[in-house]
## 1
Amino acid sequence: MTWKMSVCVAALATALVGCAQAPAKPSETHLGVEAPPVQAPGAIPPPVQIAPVLPAPQPVSPPETYSVVVNGVSAQDLLFALARDAKLNIDIHPGISGNVTLNAVDQTLPQLLERISRQISMRYELNGANLLVLPDTPFLRAYKVDFVSASRNVKMQSTASTQFGGGAGAGGGGTGSTASIDVAANSQLWETLLQNVKDILGEAPVAAAAAKPAAGAAANPAGAGGSSTVIGNRESGVIYVRASSRQHEMVQEFLDSVLANVRRQVLIEA
C-alpha cells in the first residue's frame, strides 16, 4: 500500500510540473536590460533630425485709408467726421478751433491727424478705440541720455628727441633736438546739451554760474510763452522738457543726432 501511494504522489508531482507556465522573456526595454553607454563629457551630441514646426504665417491686413477733400471746414466738424468713419470714440477739447483746408488721397488716420495738426494748434492721443484731441499747450516729457559719461577730460602727451653725433668717445660732439606735443580735450556734454535744448526752445542764455548747480540740474521757466522748462539730472541721465509737441519734435531730433555723433567720436578716440 505504501509503495502504490508513493508512485501516485510522484506521478501527480510530475503532472503539476508539466502544467506550470514558463517565465516570460524580458523585453529589450526592460529595466533589467543594460542601459546604453553614456556619452563622454565634451562629446558632440548627434544632430536633431526633426526640425521644430513653426506656426503658419498669418496674413496682415493693410491699414485702413481715407480720402478727404475739404476747403475751409471747421476743424471740429472734420475731426468728428473722421472719428465716425474710423468708428472711434472722440473727445475734443473746447479750445480746438480754426478751419482746415485739406486734399488727401488714401492716407491713414494718423497721417490725416498729423496734417491737420500742422494747420491748427492741436495734438492728439490715440489709445485703442479712443481719440483725444487737445490744444498744443506745453506738456512734460522725459528724454533719456544714454551715454557712458556726460563729462570727459582727456590729456595726451608725446615727446620725441633726436640726437646727431659727430663721433664716439670723449672728444666727440653732436647736436640734438627735443619736441613735445601736449593735447588736451575737455568735453562737458551735459552742460552743452542743456544749453542747446534751451536755445531750441527759444529760451534766453543762462549765466555760467547758474548753469552748473550742485545736483547737476538746470531749469529756466522763462522762454517761449513763459511756459517752457528744461530740467536735467546728471546722475540719472534724464532731461525733462516742458514744451509744445512741435518743440518736442525738434528736441528729439536734436538729441538723436547729437548722441549718435558723440558715440561715434568715442569709438574713434578709443
Note: Residues 204-226 have pLDDT under 50 and may be disordered.
## 2
Amino acid sequence: MPPKLPEGDFVEHRACLKCDSTDGMAYYSSGTGYCYVCETYFANADGGEECSNSSNNSTKRKSKGELLETGDYRKLTSRGLSAETCRKFDYSVGRDNGKPVQIATYRKGKGKVAQHIRSKDKGFSWKGKAKILELFGQHLWAKGGKRLVITEGEIDCMTISECQDNKWAVVSVPNGAQSAHKYILQNLEYVESFGSVVLAFDDDKEGQKAVEKCVTLLSVGKVKVMSYDGFKDANELYLERGRAAVISCIYNADEYRPDGIVNGADIWDRIKNPPKPGLSLPYPVLSKQQMGIRGGELWMFTAGSGIGKSTVVNEIGYDLLMRHGVKLGIMALEESVRDSADRYIGIQLNKRVGLTRQGISQDQYKKAWKTSLGNGKVWLFDHWGSTDIDNLMAKLRYMLVGLGV
C-alpha cells in the first residue's frame, strides 16, 4: 500500500508535475498531491516537491525523446508469446541507452507517435508523444467488428490475441487500469463501433475500479466483464492453464448490469434539495411558462415547413452560448457546417449573412465568427450527407461525454 497522505480533503484533479498526465494528479486541501498515473506523491503539490512513490514492485518513470529504432521481433518464452504475435503488434526487443528493453509501439492515425518502454526491472518509460494515442493494437482492427476485447496491458493484449490465432480484435490501454477511462474516452467512437466490448482488466481492486468507471462511457448492454478463474490476469491464466482456458473466459464474460434498483426509503439524500433553476430563454413568456431549460431534458419544436423552427432553436442555442456560457453541440442534419456557421454569425451581426454579406467587411465577419463560433465552446457535426442511426448516436455520445456539450 502507498504511504498515507497528510490530512486534507480532495480538492480537484490537476496536471501531474512529473509525468505527461493532464488530469492524473489528485490535489488535496493540505497542499499535497498524488498522481495515479506515475504513482508519485508530492509533499508540496504547488511547488513540485516529490515525496515518494508507491511501494509497488514495478517502478514507473517518464522519459521523453526520439523514438527508438525498432528492435527484433522475438519469441517471449516467459510469457508464452510467439515472434509472429509480437511482429503483428509491433512489440520488439531492443536497447535504450545500451540496456535491453521491450518496446511497445503506439500510433495515431497512420503514424508511429510513441513507444512504451519496459526495462528488465519492470520499470516503464515513454518515448515520443504519449498524450493522445490510439489504443495499443487499434490499427490492426477495422471499426464495426462483432467484439472488441480491451486489456490493461500490452502483454495481456497479445496473450488474448495469440489464444485466438490473432484473428479477433484485441487492444490495450497505454498506462494500466488507471488510464483506461481517459484512453477509451479519447477513442470512444472506435470502441462504440463494435457490437460488444469485453473489459479484460486485471482481477484486482484497481481493475475493478476501472471497470466501474469505464462502463459509464459505453452503451447500456454493450459491455461484458472478463474474469480469470482465480488468476490475476490473462497471461497468468494462459501460462497455467493454456489457451482453451483463456478463450473460455472470453466467451463466458458476464454482461455488465449496473446497480439500478433502489428502495424508496433510501433516496432521501437525493431528493431533499429543491431542483436547480433552469437557464432562462431569450423568449420571456416561454421561459416563464417552462421555468427555463434544464439539463437532462429533451425539447421538441414542431411546425410546418418554413415556419421558423430552425431559427428559434438556433436563437436559443446562441443565447445559451453567449449569455449563459455553456458549451454547445450543433447537429444540423439538413444543412452544411457553413450554413450552420452563418446562422450563428448572422445572429451576432443581426444580418442574414448566409444570403449576402453586402455592407459587412471581412474584418466584421471574422470578428463575429470569433465571438460566436470561434471561442472554442462550439462543436458542429460535419455529416457529409446521410448517416445511419448507430453512427449518429455514437457521434452524439462523443459530443456529450467526450466534449462536454
Note: The two ends are 38 Å apart (CA to CA).
## 3
Amino acid sequence: MTRGAIQYVKGESYPSLKDYLESEKLMIKYKSTKLGGLYTNIAMIYNEISEEGLSASYLKKPFRLLN
C-alpha cells in the first residue's frame, strides 16, 4: 500500500490505483484490518479521475465490513 501512496503524492493517479487494487486482493486474502482505509484511498482516486460511480461504491465498502 505504501508504493500506491507514494505514487499518489507524486500525482501518478493511475499507477497508484493499480497498486491499491492489487493491495485490495492481498488484504482480502489475508483478512487485513486496514482494508477500510484502503477503500477510502481507492475511492479518492476514482473521484479524481471522474469515476464517481466507482468512487461511491468504494466509499460504501468500509460500512459493509462492519456487518
Note: The chain has a mean pLDDT of 92.
